[in-house]
Structures are given as C-alpha cells and as structure tokens.
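Weekly structure sync - notes
Attendees: PM, LS, DV (DV joined late)
Agenda: review two folding runs queued last week.

Item 1: First target. Sequence and structure tokens pasted below for the record.
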Amino acid sequence: MDQLKTFHPTGIFDNIKVLEFRDDLLKSVTDEGAKRILLDFSGITFMDSAGLGSLVLLLKTVRAHGCKMYLCSVNQQIKMLFELTNMDSIFEIFSSQEEFLEHAQG
C-alpha cells in the first residue's frame, strides 16, 4: 500500500488554517514520499469559501506531485458547501477514516 499521511485540522477551515499545515503536508509529499493524503475533518466545525478555495489549491499542488488527496468525516455544513459548488465531484469524500481504509485496502 502506498504511504499514507493523515492530517487532523481543527476549528474553522479557512485560508489561514490551510497555511498552518500546508508546509507539513507538502513536506510529507516531497520529502517523506507520501503518495496519499487523508484530511480528517472530524475536528472542523465550519468551512468558508476561502477555505474551499485553499483546499482546491492544495489538491492541485498534491496532484502535481503525483499524489492523491482524500477527505473524511466532513460535517453536514461542509458537505452542503461541497454539493452546492459541485466540489463533491472533485474531491473523494468518505464518511469516516474506517470507510476510507476499507476502500484503500479493497
């Protein structure tokens, strides 16, 4: 199985929150050889449009390095934001880490 790195951001997901862990995420991809990134949103209470835009840029960056990025444990407000913007067709979203791991192994 490709190397997986999981991140657990918390609080409000906006462009400032992305800046807090973007460097660690990129280091995982470039220096540590992670091929898959999982963002566990169980600790995220709210995401605004700036956060969504930053997430899209993060996805593009990760893909440019030949890596895949997944989301899990997204709350109802964030799920609705993804659906309204059709971003649910861009991001692979799983209900939980367990569901992601089952998918990854199958």
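Item 2: Second target, run right after the first with the same settings.
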Amino acid sequence: MTAAAWEEPPGRAGQAGKSAILLITVAVVIVPLWMVAITSFSTQGSVNDAGGLVLVPHGLTTAAYEQIFTNTLIMHSLLVSLGVTIVGTAVSLVVTTLAAYGLSRPGSYAHRPILMLLIVTMFFSGGLIPTFLVVTALGGFDNYWSMILPGAVSVFNILVMRGFFAGTAQELIDAAAIDGASEWRTLWSVVLPTSRAVTAVIALFYAVGYWNTFFNALLYLPDTGKWPLQMVIYTFTLQGGAMPGTGITNTGQYYGNQQITPLAIQMAVVTLTLIPILLVYPFVQRHFAKGMLLGAIKG
C-alpha cells in the first residue's frame, strides 16, 4: 500500500525549508528580546549611535539597573506586582477549580443553568463604566483588591478545566465514593492529582494575566505608591521616558560617573518584567507538551 504524501519522510528540500522557517521564527522571537536586554545595559553614547534599540553591544554598563534597584518607587512596584500575581493566581485558581468541579458533576444542583449563565458572560458584559461604579461602591477604589477581584475568574478557564474534570475516569470517582469519600475528598485526592497538567496551565494563564495587568491600576489606583510594575512601564511610555516621583527625566542623566538614557532604564524595567515568566515557564512547559488530554487510567 502506498503511503499518503504527508506520511512520507521529507526530502532534503523539505528538511531545509523546515529548518529555514524554524530559524526565522526563532530569530523573530529572540532578536527583539536580545535588543531589549542589550539596550538596558547600554550607555547614552551606545543608544545614540544605534539611534534607538542597540543590536550590537558596546559600551556596556549596569548603571540602569543600579538606578532601578536604588529607586524606592520602582522596587515597591515590583513587590506590588509579585504580591498581586501570587495572591491573585491563588484566588483565581481556587475559585476556578471549585466552579469547574461543581459544573463537571452531572448530579450537581442547577449545573446546566449556571453553566449557560457563565457562557453568556463571555459574550455580554455590563461595560466599563458600570464595572467601575460597582468596584468603587464596594470600596475598591485605591485598594489593592481592585486589581484582583474584578477579573478573578475567567469563564474560558472554567470551561477548559470543567472539560478536563468531566473526562476523569468514572471508575476512580465511584471507587472513592464506595470508600466513603466526600466530594471535597474526591476533588482533593482523586480529581486534582490526575489533573496536574491542566491545573498548571491554568495557573500559568492567570499568573501571566496578573503580572501583565495595568489597566485596573490605571482605573482604581490613583496613588503612585500602589502601582504595579506594568503601570510604571506604561507611565514611562506615556511620559516619553520621564517618570514622576522617581527622579527619572526624559533627558540623559548621570548615575555616578555613568551617563545613561531613559531608554536604557525603560528596557531595564521591561527586562525585569520578563524574568519571572522566563523562570516559571520551563517548569510548566512540559505540561503544555503533554496537553490537556491526559487520562486517569492507562494501559
């Protein structure tokens, strides 16, 4: 029997084409990151010679990072982002897990109407102004929780986790019920251990969302002392390199005996925002590779 065209091993031309596409894709991802990182270590003269972002490193300095680490507002915003990410991810993951498990059980109370109601919210919302009024009326204005609770739950993530929970082998759940396990015990001891892949992926989705958020801070946090790191970056961009309250202006300045540019400081802040995600992703990547189709029974 003749194999289909897509089942045949690629020839040399096909291998070369795939390699070229892969190299181009990697370059498109790596080169901008490289330019951001190198620019953050560049002096005023290097940035001026490059006319912006630096591609070829020369005249490297750590002055931008030294200024950031000695700047109380920027360091506090970094701690705020870390706190919001950790607390927000924990809250969102708990609520999403409980909602998904309840909706995945066929005998749970009113699970179909609740599911339909959740799906409706994916297409229709109250709008920005009503949301702002509700959050403000509940005391969220100028409070940290306004960055977490208004967007604590993603219906899409609930649906993904619900579909995975629904695929858990019924034999395992029945065995736990025969042993006298409650629903809480079944969730904790049976369902979650067989759902590590989807739990890790959903946790990463939430963590990246909280780490990158700035819009809620723009709406609800007028106090610059409560801003997350992304809001600082947003202000850097909006002010053209100046940042009120940090001593950083949109003109070249000296730190010690090193002349640095606001662009280098901007890129240094951007680099700091990338590091946590780059550190976490390798531990979650294997779950992406496995996907969300793991079963509880093998063999």
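Discussion on item 2: The CA atoms of residues 116 and 122 lie 10 Å apart.
Action: LS to circulate a short write-up before next sync.
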